[in-house]
């Protein structure tokens, strides 16, 4: 699997078990971040209660929903193209209704209904519980819209159906929204203020997954290290909480520790960490528990302190480097990955060199790298001219991607000769005689199947590798995870 990506994932349509009493057909596809894929599972669950079974045949759908991403212009263009496709299908199936969910719905609001005649329904990320009412309006022939952002909604009371699942790994959302206001980012506008989900409902969802045989959970949030439950409400209102609420508050380190202790035979990951909010306690929790993976996705965006300041990232290059030193000291074999933006307004060649040198310093295992895309309404769009020419952004991106490929190869190489613990997820897409899974550091490993099966934790001796995949042979079950 190639971890180095330059643009957004393709949409994926999702199908779940069919309920025989449901007669209507829902085609739902998702673009963008993991949170969108996870939200689509919440939406499918809500609509399963409204008589909808999912289908992966667009042509037979009564209702088509597209869960959209606004993070870069290209992501929005991809969705516009999909709407053209739906339009063509609607000519054959005129009864079909079309709804737009997610960040583009929130960003464009009723403009969507004006600009795209095909769209009947526009629903923002906090309004999915209103879908039954909105659909009733659509059925009566009216367009329907709800893009109200919430201070409370975490969908903690909805048990998401698992769409297109491998039955082994699952995502569980723990926070929604983001308060960081990075100047380039549209997320705080489309997903609202940050709020945390009640620990009890998180643990219940994991219990349910455990009972159904799942083995690995990724705790999801825009900024997981900022998780704070004090009885509900916005993170920014914590100061107003009572002494009692503060005394019983649960932070991310505590939540992760609780998960690891309650489910010792399940493995835990989390995403995404923000450098300024990552505290040392979390590192100790990772180091303490075998079942918390040694992998941190720690986006930095730029290696230049001046650019970081323009981006309103709340740390300098040096502070980020000392956080890396701390991670290396507390968790010696921790994998670290990055998100990087090239060509942010005012970025000079020297700033770009700072990015390359920081990458070498950290020796990142993986990376997700993007050319800057101005997003309407963000502070950067309002205050800074998008002044780095497109070909310069692209050239710098290529340099960053090329360097990351070399770093990744070195990181993968160092596993040769080692024995690593791999959770088997599925058949290797290159060979039906091999299993594919990931080690603690999130590196994909493939090995001959023998008598093992998906969901097994297996010790694998690594014999060779490509730049992103380890190749080896199983030497037995991992006793620690049996
Ligand atoms: N904290 C979030 C970040 C979401 S956006 C998380 O959970 O991952 C994911 C990445 O997209 C960011 O880290 C950033 O590298 C990139 N990105 C965001 N806005 C962008 C923009 N305007 N142009 C280019 N890349 C952007
Ligand atoms: Fe976006 Fe920064 Fe939050 S990248 S999601 S505003 S941490």
UniProtKB/TrEMBL annotation:
EC class of the enzyme, as a word: transferase
Compartments (UniProt record): Cytoplasm
Domain MTTase N-terminal span(s) in chain numbering: 24-140
Domain Radical SAM core: 164-410
Cofactor(s) of this protein: [4Fe-4S] cluster
EC number: 2.8.4.3
UniProt entry tagged with the keyword rRNA processing: no
Alphabetized InterPro entries for the sequence: Elp3/MiaA/NifB-like_rSAM, Methylthiotransferase, Methylthiotransferase_CS, Methylthiotransferase_N, Methylthiotransferase_N_sf, MiaB_methiolase, rSAM, rSAM_horseshoe
Binding residues annotated for [4Fe-4S] cluster 1, in chain numbering: 33, 69, 103
Binding site for [4Fe-4S] cluster 2: 178, 182, 185
HAMAP family for this protein: tRNA_metthiotr_MiaB
Record-given protein name: tRNA-2-methylthio-N(6)-dimethylallyladenosine synthase
């Amino acid at each position: 699997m190639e971890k180095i990506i330059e643009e957004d994932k393709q949409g994926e349509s999702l199908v779940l078990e069919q309920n025989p009493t449901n007669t209507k057909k829902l085609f739902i596809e998702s673009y963008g971040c993991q949170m969108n894929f996870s939200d689509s599972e919440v939406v499918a669950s809500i609509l399963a209660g409204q008589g909808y079974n999912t289908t992966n045949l667009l042509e037979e759908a009564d209702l088509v929903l597209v869960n959209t991403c606004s993070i870069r212009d290209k992501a929005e263009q991809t969705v516009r193209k999909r709407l053209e496709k739906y339009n063509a299908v609607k000519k054959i199936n005129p009864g079909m209704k079309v709804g737009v969910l997610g960040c583009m719905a929130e960003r464009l609001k009723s403009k969507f209904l004006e600009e795209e005649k095909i769209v009947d329904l526009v629903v923002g990320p906090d309004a999915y519980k209103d879908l039954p009412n909105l659909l009733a309006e659509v059925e009566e022939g009216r367009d329907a819209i709800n893009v109200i952002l919430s201070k409370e909604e975490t969908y903690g009371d909805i048990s998401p159906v698992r769409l297109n699942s491998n039955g082994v790994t699952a995502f569980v959302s723990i926070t929604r929204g983001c308060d960081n206001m990075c100047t380039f980012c549209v997320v705080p506008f489309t997903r609202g203020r940050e709020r945390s989900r009640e620990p009890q409902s998180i643990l219940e969802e994991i219990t349910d997954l455990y009972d159904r045989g799942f083995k690995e959970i990724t705790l999801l949030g825009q900024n997981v290290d900022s998780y704070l439950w004090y009885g509900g409400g916005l993170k920014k209102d914590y100061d107003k909480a009572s002494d009692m609420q503060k005394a019983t508050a649960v932070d991310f380190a505590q939540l992760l520790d609780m998960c690891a202790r309650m489910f010792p035979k399940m493995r835990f990951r989390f995403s995404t960490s923000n450098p300024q909010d990552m505290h040392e306690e979390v590192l100790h929790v990772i180091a303490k528990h075998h079942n918390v993976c040694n992998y941190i996705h720690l986006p930095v965006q730029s290696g230049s302190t001046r650019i970081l300041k323009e981006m309103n990232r709340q740390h300098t290059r040096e502070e980020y480097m000392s956080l890396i030193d701390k991670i290396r000291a507390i968790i010696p074999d921790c994998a670290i990955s990055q998100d990087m933006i090239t060509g942010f307004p005012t970025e000079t060649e020297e700033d770009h060199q700072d990015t390359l040198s920081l990458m070498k310093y950290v020796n990142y295992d993986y990376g997700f790298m993007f050319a800057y895309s101005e997003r309407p309404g963000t502070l950067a769009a309002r205050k800074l001219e998008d002044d780095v020419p497109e070909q310069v952004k692209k050239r710098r991106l290529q340099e960053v991607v090329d360097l990351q490929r070399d770093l990744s190869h070195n990181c993968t190489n160092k596993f040769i000769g080692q024995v690593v613990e791999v959770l088997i997820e599925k058949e290797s897409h290159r060979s039906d005689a091999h299993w594919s899974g990931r080690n603690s550091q999130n590196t994909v490993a493939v090995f001959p199947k023998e008598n093992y099966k998906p969901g097994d934790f297996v010790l694998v001796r690594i014999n060779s590798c490509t730049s992103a995949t380890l190749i080896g042979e199983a030497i037995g079950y991992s006793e620690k995870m049996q």
